[in-house]
Amino acid sequence: MPGDSLSFSETVRARSSVRRFRPDPVPAALLRTILEEAQRAPSNCNTQPWQVHIVSGAARDRMAAALDAAWVAQRLSPDFFFDGPAYPGVYGVRRREQGMTYLQAMGVTREDHAGRDALSRQNLDFFGAPHAAFLFMPAIGDHVRVAADVGMYAQTLLLSLVAHGLGGVPQTMLGFFGDVVRAELGISEDFRLLFGISFGYPDHDAPEAGYRMERAPIEEAVTFHD
Ligand SMILES: Cc1cc2nc3c(=O)[nH]c(=O)nc-3n(C[C@H](O)[C@H](O)[C@H](O)COP(=O)(O)O)c2cc1C
C-alpha cells in the first residue's frame, strides 16, 4: 500500500485516480504537510496563481447537496468550455477508450442512462471522499498560462497525497458548477473554477479500485532531435 517510504518512481507509478474512499478524515497536520508540498509547484514567474478552497465535514456535505440539486435541475455553469466530442483523432480515441473502461469498471453500459446518471451524481458526491479541493484561478489574459500553473499545482498535490498513503481524483465535473461553488463558499466572481480534486484514504477493496488506465508509449508523445 502506498506510504511515506515510496521512492519518487514508485509514487508516480502508484498514482491513479481514486473513485471510492474511506470516510476517515485526513488529520489536519498531515493535510497541512501535503498542502505545503503542493505549494512547491512551479508557476510562470513564480506567480502561484492557484486559490484552493477545501471543504470537509458539514461544509463538504452542504456542497455535495448543492451540487446534486444543481445537477438534478441541470443548472450547469462552467467557467471554461469543455467540448468532449470535439477532441480529434487519437485524442478522441483515447477519450472514448477511457469512457468505456470507466463504465465497464463501474458495471454500467453506455445505454444505461440511469446508471450513468448515478455515476455523475457519485462524481458530485466526491466519490465518498471526506474532502474536496476546488481549484480557482484569477482571470488573467487568455487563461492558458494560469491554467497550466494550476495543473502543475494539481499534479504536485496528487503525488504528495499518494506519497503520504492517500489518494485523489481530479474532476472537471466539479468545474461545471462555478456559480454553485462560488455561492456556497462566498467566493468572488473574479475567480474562475478550473476543476476540483476529491481526496482522502482510498478504499482499496472497492471494485472501482481494480482498474488502471494504460498510457501510450513515449514514442507517441516524445520526438528526439539530435
Ligand atoms: C483535469 C482533469 C479532469 C478530470 N475530470 C474527471 C472527472 O470529472 N471525473 C472523473 O471520474 N475523472 C476525471 N479525471 C480523471 C481522468 O479520467 C484520469 O486521470 C485518466 O483517465 C487517467 O487515469 P488515471 O488518473 O487513473 O491514471 C480528470 C483528470 C484530469 C487531469
Descriptive notes:
- It is a single chain.
- The chain has 226 residues and is α+β, with helices and mostly antiparallel strands.
- It has a domain at 8-84 and 126-204: 3-Layer(aba) Sandwich (NADH Oxidase).
- 42% of the residues lie in helices and 13% in strands.
- The protein has eight helices and four strands.
- The protein has helices spanning 8-14, 28-38, 57-72, 89-105, 113-124, 144-163, 172-175, 178-185, and strands at residues 51-56, 131-138, 167-171, 191-200.
- A four-stranded antiparallel beta sheet has the order 1-2-4-3, with helices on both faces.
- The structure holds flavin mononucleotide.
SSE blueprint and pairings:
Blueprint: H1 8-14, H2 28-38, E1 51-56, H3 57-72, H4 89-105, H5 113-124, E2 131-138, H6 144-163, E3 167-171, H7 172-175, H8 178-185, E4 191-200
Antiparallel strand pairs: 1-2, 2-4, 3-4
Helix pairs in contact: 1-6, 2-6
Bound molecules: flavin mononucleotide.
Flavin mononucleotide (FMN) binds at residues 16-17, 19, 98, 123, 169-173, 195, 213.
Give a brief outline of the structure.
The protein has 226 residues and is α+β, with helices and mostly antiparallel strands.
Structure summary, number of beta strands: 4
Q: H/E element string?
A: HHEHHHEHEHHE
What small molecules does this complex bind?
flavin mononucleotide
| Widest sheet, order of strands | 1-2-4-3
Give the N-to-C terminal Cα separation: 41 Å
General form: globular
How is the main sheet built? 4 strands, antiparallel
Query: Into which percent range does the helicity of residues fall?
Result: 40-55%
The helix count comes to: 8
Strand content: 5-15%
- What is the CATH architecture descriptor of the domain at 8-84 and 126-204? 3-Layer(aba) Sandwich
- The low-pLDDT segments are none
**How is the CATH topology of the domain at 8-84 and 126-204 named?**
NADH Oxidase
Protein structure class: alpha+beta
Q: What do the pLDDT scores average to?
A: 95
Q: Can you say what the CATH homologous superfamily of the domain at 8-84 and 126-204 is?
A: NADH Oxidase
CATH level 1 class label of the domain at 8-84 and 126-204: Alpha Beta
Using the CA coordinates, give the radius of gyration: 18 Å
